[in-house]
């Protein structure tokens, strides 16, 4: 649904030696009857204490189940005491592993009390089989992230083995998720949570291969409809700019903010992007991109007028502080070996599923960006990636015919998956089971992380009563 520091938190829309029965002796823990075994990294990392791990074998291509296979990794955090059931947590991206949930266990425990938390790594991410098997290995030069010469050799391998590359599809990943849920089902209550790209994956699974037991679904930062060009990745800068201008307009409507800034926030931002010397002071020399990254955090975006005021007066301290805080925001998500985002998978999925303009050129990207005050890097990253794309299959743009109760959590200041896009998607979903939209006023993307109190209140109510709270939530 993805500034470098924030990449581990939200991408486009976040070393285990042994985790399976075949390696139980090395792990030092015998596999349990349910296929899980103690995780070796749980012994050395308090954040993972008590977790259990398993690997599941799945077809590379579900149309050829007897052909090549890959491994899917899943980590389980057992509930304290007696378990009430399971919650499956589906990460965003694409390219983000389940490690993006590890720093958020406290919030998840409060929202889903008494439940086991199961966290899979999508095919191509984390400890599951990777697109570039050598270059993305955790024991390679750059670890799970590509480094130096690995970029060239990785993408050469993707091109040379295009059949394997094009098997890392959204639909195959959806079938993976269904197979995992069936394999590790306990027969008790089962809930499914997806965020950003994870909402697209969850809905594709419910369309293609819904699991037999599912009591409800929570969709955090729902993606727009797949067939709607207005909000696809190639138009991400327009989405970011709309939220950024709303932040500036809020300052302009506040006499105190205008006075502290010494005038209009919109004019100050325009003056910054038009002044090459001022722009050089901003990290990367690209103020539109840097300030766009601040929109993912309510606390950081609120400091945009202060940073603009400092730049205008020659005081760089507010800018330097917000840069440090932006880095710190993502630091907790980068500490696990499987944390690095898989850029190869980002390239394959985004080019195939979420780019309505495959012929987009760099000239177009720059021309469109010229009229914005805030931009995303995504449109430029889509240029020239079509060689890795796979053909869209029969499930593209389709909606599930049936759903259990659904809770959609959406921020009205989301710079990645806009509220209007989520509302358009909701109109396409079946209504029989009840779809609850809970809007967080001032909420950005990934509300589990950016609005934890609102998240806990909404999810707890949904789990208990099958509906969202009646009271609104604001940041």
From TrEMBL:
Leader sequence residues: 1-24
UniProt keyword annotation of Transport present: no
Keyword match Hydrolase: yes
Domain Peptidase S33 tripeptidyl aminopeptidase-like C-terminal, first and last residues per copy: 401-470
SUPFAM superfamilies: alpha/beta-Hydrolases
Protein keywords: Hydrolase, Signal
GO MF: hydrolase activity
Pfam families in alphabetical order: Abhydrolase_1, Abhydrolase_4
Regions that span the bilayer: none
Source organism, top-level taxon: Bacteria
Alphabetical list of InterPro entries matching this protein: AB_hydrolase_1 (IPR000073), AB_hydrolase_fold (IPR029058), Pept_S33_TAP-like_C (IPR013595), Serine_prot/Carboxylest_S33 (IPR051601)
Domain AB hydrolase-1 intervals: 89-233
Family statement: Belongs to the peptidase S33 family.
Name of this protein: Alpha/beta fold hydrolase
Organism: Corallococcus exercitus
Organism phylogeny: Bacteria, Pseudomonadati, Myxococcota, Myxococcia, Myxococcales
